[in-house]
C-alpha cells in the first residue's frame, strides 16, 4: 500500500512530536520526568532513524558521496545524545533546545536534508518510509551524572559549534555552569 507521506513529512512530524514533549517536560517549576523520558527515548530513536537509515540511504543513492550536511548532523546528534545522559536539569533542557533550534532547520528547510532525501529516494521513497516507521525503540540506560558525562557534553558541544565555524557557539551557554547543572 502506497503512503502519501513524504520522508520530509514523516520526519518533520516527529520533530513536532518531540518538540511538544520537550515543552511539556520544561513547562512547570519541576521537570516533568515522564514527558522527559518519552522525549529522551523518542529523540534517540529519531537520531537512530537518521543515522542508520536516512543518511546511509542518501549516501548510497549519491553513489557513495554523503550529503553535504551529514557531517554537521552527526556532530549535532553526538552532542544531543551526550546531553541525554545526565539527569535532566533546566540548564540541560535549555542546551538541548538550543542545539535543536539550529539543527532542525538544516533538516526541515526547503533545501534541507529531508527534501534532498525525498528527491534522491525516487522509487525507493516508500521502502525508506517503511524502514523509518519500523525503526525499533532505542533502549535507554539510567542517567549518569559523573564528571566524564559533563566533560563529554562540553567536548561534543564544542565540536558541534566548531563544524559550524564557531567553536564557542554552544559552549557560551555553559559559561558559569561548567557541568550543565
Topology of helices and strands:
Blueprint: H1 7-26, H2 33-61, H3 70-83, H4 90-108, H5 113-121, H6 125-133, H7 147-162
Helix pairs in contact: 1-2, 1-4, 1-5, 2-3, 2-5, 3-4, 3-7
Explain this structure:
This protein is mainly α and 181 residues long. Helix content is 64%, strand content 0%. It has helices at 7-26, 33-61, 70-83, 90-108, 113-121, 125-133, 147-162. Helix 1 packs antiparallel against helix 5.
Can you describe this structure in just a few lines?
The chain is 64% helix and 0% strand. With 181 residues, the chain is mainly α.
Please indicate the count of domains: 1
- Shape assignment: globular
Strand content: under 5%
- DSSP strand count: 0
Mean pLDDT, all residues? 92
Nearest-angstrom radius of gyration? Answer: 17 Å
**Count of alpha/pi helices:** 7
Helix-strand string: HHHHHHH
Give the CA-CA distance, first to last residue: 48 Å
**Biggest pleated-sheet summary:** none
Structural class: mainly alpha
Q: Give unreliable regions as ranges.
A: 175-181
Helix content: 55-70%
